[in-house]
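Forwarding these from the shared drive since the link keeps breaking.
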Amino acid sequence: MAKAKNDYGFQHGLRKFLLNAKYLLKYQPNSKKHPESKLVLVISFPRSGTHALASMIDHPGIGLNYYGEFFIFNQWSPIVENLNKSIPFFSWRYFLNTRRQKRNWEHYRFEKTSLDPIKTIEKILIYPGTHTIKIFPEHLSMETLSKIISKFKPHLVILRRNHLDRYISLKKANATGKWHKVNSSDVEISINEAELQRYIDQYIDWYGKVKGAAISSGCQLMDIEFGQLHDPATTQSIQEFVAVNNHGLDSLPKAPTTTKMDKSSKIQDDYLALHNKKHSDFDFASIK
């Protein structure tokens, strides 16, 4: 069985390589940014609601393209194949690194390969429409992300969520291996005080650095909290913010179409009662 699986992987990789070779006939090395293209970065954190956000802004039919965790080799989309026209063997190299990522997860993998994040974005912007990419702290180094912000001046949607809720949601997902569409209400996890504090400090620090880089580069920003995704007025503002124009926006959902995984707050409630704290003590507040 293992040999058959490996043979399939080899054959699929070889087929991908040969298809990439055909793209050399369509090579476009000097293509310029399309006048109706737009780069949007969703700056967020694990278990902060990006899946819910995506359900409201991922609509290629009206030019809203959402690529998810593109720079961690955790998302495949049509743009991967299109990039072969201007970056030789892009999808073949992306395919190989996606396989490696699944076998052995590694942070900042994109920057450790022969693929260049800045060149990749340059070529994505050849195509019209909104190009939205989700960035977590472990996807790109702060140095590379700062260069991207400075060079492209993207629109940034920063999505925050209460630290305690995020931490518990992440612990449950790690414990079960289930990240979407599964009820995790009955999953039991323990809270490690030192780990929770490191988790909070790490993400506040990164958030401050990214927001500072965006402000100093003159980027347009929307800095919102998870609960605001359920406000139709905020949702509409997000959709207008990411879109190149308002064509078709009326047809988009004004609330997340995802299913809430954790329908219980018992672990939070027990922890707060034990430590005489309030849920709001863990709010991930916006900074100026």
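-- next protein --
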Amino acid sequence: MGDIVRLNVPFRQSTKVTRQAALVTAFATQRRSPDDVFWMKENAELLNVLDATGEGQDPETLAVHLAFYDDIENRLGFFPQYYRFLLSICFDLEDLGIGGHKGEKLANWVARSGLAEAELSDLQRAEARRLCQRRGVDPLPRDTGLNDRLRGFARRSETFAMPNKKAAYELTHIVFYLSEYGRCDPGLDAVFIDSLSFAGTLAFLDMNLDLLSEICIALRFAGTTPPQIWEMWIAEQAARFGIETAGAAGVADDYHQFLMVNWHQSLAGQGGFALHVPEGPIVFRQPHPGPGSLRELSECMYGLGDRRSADWPAMKTAIHDKLSSEARSVLNLAESATDRFDAFFAGFARTGLARLGGDRP
């Protein structure tokens, strides 16, 4: 087992910027090969977080990406299916200070090639538009209703009162794109905020650190302070993370949770990126956060059948003795975190359709 470096270890990398620089080097050279699509994914995500936090990097740090940057036109031409990763890496490297100016040319080529028009998902189209518009190019000039469709999806709050991780992650990314990663007001109304609140309540009930961190980031981009209970729990989990030296690169780990938690900590003014980064291949480890209550609560509600109700005070009494003490504890915290728990539960209970039955056809 590798050595786990925790927060109370004296740092050789004495500032956040030097620790972030060590991450840039490790992601670029120690975890995967640049020919691996997961290398592009990981490095695009790390660079995006660093750019979004607004914390500049020493150009010498970015030198580890120079060979990739120098060849990026060839990669885009041969691997157009990865154009969003490649554009993101290119733009972030330039904006962080690598010293090149290829982005506008690449964005224009993507637009002329119709790559954004080939996307089936509105969310992917929104990401493509957001990327290209960073260099003043709109790859979808005729799609004037894209943002309205995204807002329509996000404003159906009942969607996010039911367990659906894919929808919840799409919701957070809609906020990321509408807000330009916190650079502008996304103009979210109360119904949209309810959707984020409901999705966050489910993430907390499930003890899903990655998703809850994204939801709290999205709420802050919307100008709303997330519930204190959520952010305190995220801070507790951040302090338990470890970075281990690895025997070989390319292993599955908790790097995304690490990035989201530390992005949130930076945004919330709570530090972030405090861990020393060992030399060589590394992996990120999130200790198990403990049992949540989502599965128990869902099974309990389903088991009530016709006795299931959208009335939270009535259901709270009905299910109390059916849940474990751990599940009750998490549920009580989830209820205390938000003044919209009753509204959340009305959707979570799923009582809108009577039990199917009647005559057989």
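Residues 32-150 form one domain. The radius of gyration is 22 Å.

- D.
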